[in-house]
């Protein structure tokens, strides 16, 4: 069970704060985001407090991510979005505002559905050799 006393998501897990629950089992909880960026915007969280992707236990991640497609498919059946963004922010710089790992499922209904997300490409700034070096630096750190 969640143990961080000042964490809003831990309070939701404990039932101290109400939430519109979508799914719950022994390990995870999915509920509607209060902000509803688009209709059906759902958060999936582990019931054990994990700050972010950098501290997320792989076994906890396995349980959480195994339910993500199930919940996404339920959103698709209920609301018929034409797409869906899965979003996870880690650290304040990356936009994390609640420091309990959570995955956003944001249904997309069209170009004018109020959610804007864009990557800026830097493809021309990296050679194949530079990309290979970056890949090697990451790969050597994987156990």
Automatic annotation (TrEMBL):
Coiled coil: none annotated. Residues 8-115 form the HIT domain. One of its GO terms (biological process) is nucleotide metabolic process. InterPro entries: HINT, Histidine_triad_CS, Histidine_triad_HIT, HIT-like, HIT-like_sf. The active site is at 102 (tele-amp-histidine intermediate). This is Histidine triad (HIT) family protein. GO terms for molecular function: catalytic activity. A motif (Histidine triad motif) lies at residues 100-104.
